[in-house]
Design goal:
The complex is a heterodimer. By secondary structure, chain A is mainly β. Chain A has one domain: EutN/Ccml (OB fold (Dihydrolipoamide Acetyltransferase, E2P)). In chain A, 0% of the residues lie in helices and 36% in strands. Chain A has no helices and six strands. By secondary structure, chain B is mainly beta. Chain B has two helices and five strands, in the order E-E-E-E-H-E-H. The termini of chain B are far apart. The interface between A and B is medium-sized, with 33 and 29 residues. Strand 6 of chain A pairs antiparallel with strand 1 of chain B, so a sheet runs across the interface.
Chain lengths: 96, 120
């Protein structure tokens, strides 16, 4: 899984039937210090994440497992919303 | 499998039900010389590793969710061992990638050449 931050969402009317009802969120990967990095990707969501939240997402075949009955054609899915990130250092400021 | 170092752990309340009760670690994959190899990843812990440990990281979905005792789950990486010792018989020179070339010095600014007047 990778850390990321939700930076927006995508609407699509004409799409594969498996994507019906799925939220499509734009996720920007983040480094351990929470700075944005890399290229944004579009993820389906099984947690109810919203814009600006720090999340972790899974890539590949496992991305369709949360929706096994629905056969969602997804290769990236948000599977958790991060409450706290502990890097084992004394905390100087609020992480999130 | 990769060598990685645990650099943090993660708390999440709102998540896929299969992740409940599992420890989530933030691990940084390493090269043999200890330098970082790509981005840190989030892995499920199956060996009670802690921050600072060098660990074995598996990055295949099937291997990952079977090590934590699940049949099918949205998990793509897991920590499957804590490394005690690494022995390199051929030395680091034989396996380490070549060091990156030093950044080139900035070139001296080229002298401005007077513009040629275009023929009318």
């Amino acid at each position: 899984m990778q850390l990321g931050r939700v930076v927006g969402c995508v609407w699509s009317s004409v799409k594969n039937l498996g994507l019906t009802g799925q939220r499509l969120l734009i996720v920007q990967p983040v480094k351990a210090d929470l700075s944005l990095t890399g290229r944004a990707i579009i993820c389906t969501d099984c947690t109810g994440a919203g814009s600006g939240e720090l999340i972790y997402w899974v890539r590949g075949k496992e991305a369709s497992f949360p929706f096994t009955d629905a056969e969602v054609p997804s290769d990236a899915t948000i599977v958790g919303i991060v409450d706290e990130l502990n890097l084992g250092k004394p905390r100087t400021e609020e992480h999130l | 499998m990769l060598i990685a170092r645990v650099i943090g752990d993660i708390t999440a309340t709102q998540k896929h039900p299969s992740h409940e009760g599992k420890k989530l670690l933030l691990v940084q994959p390493l090269d043999l010389d200890g330098s970082h190899r790509g981005m840190p990843v989030i892995a499920v812990d199956s060996v009670s590793a802690g921050i600072g440990d060098r660990v074995l990281l598996v990055q295949d979905g099937f291997a990952a969710f079977t090590t934590v005792g699940l049949k099918i789950a949205p998990i793509d990486s897991a920590v499957i061992g804590v490394i005690d010792h690494i022995q390199l018989d051929l030395g680091l020179d034989a396996v380490a990638p070549e060091p990156a070339p030093a950044p080139a010095e900035p070139r001296p600014a080229a002298k401005k050449q007077p513009k040629k007047n275009r023929a009318q």
